[in-house]
């Protein structure tokens, strides 16, 4: 699971994830084990907050 502390909650990355791996909790983004590293969320985030190894 990953938490993105500076997320401001636009929910763009949640909308594009094909595997439902992202959840917005207040304004903190969480990524669970369903992430298949498709990486589209990384390109959608307007603040460049998502880093995927
Ligand atoms: S796209 Fe970026 S700012 Fe928007 S919800 Fe996702 S992590 Fe947060």
Q: Give the count of helical stretches.
A: 2
The pLDDT mean sits at: 86
Q: Tell me the number of strands.
A: 3
- Major β-sheet annotation: 3 strands, antiparallel
- C-alpha Rg (nearest Å): 10 Å
Q: What distance lies between the first and last C-alpha atoms, to the nearest angstrom?
A: 13 Å
What percentage of the residues does DSSP assign to strands (E)? Answer: 15-25%
Structural class: alpha+beta
- Helicity, in percent? 10-25%
Order of helices and strands: EHEEH
Low-confidence stretches: none
Ligand species: iron/sulfur cluster
Shape label: globular
Question: How many domain regions?
Answer: 1
Order of the strands making up the biggest sheet: 1-3-2
Structure commentary:
This protein has 53 residues and is α+β, with helices and mostly antiparallel strands. The chain has one domain (2-44). The protein is built from two helices and three strands. The chain has helices at 12-16, 40-44, and strands at 2-4, 22-25, 28-31. It has a three-stranded antiparallel β-sheet, with no helix packed on it. Strand 2 (22-25) and strand 3 form a beta hairpin. The protein is globular and about 25 Å long. The chain binds iron/sulfur cluster. Iron/sulfur cluster (SF4) is lined by residues 4, 7-13, 29, 44-45, 47, 49-50.
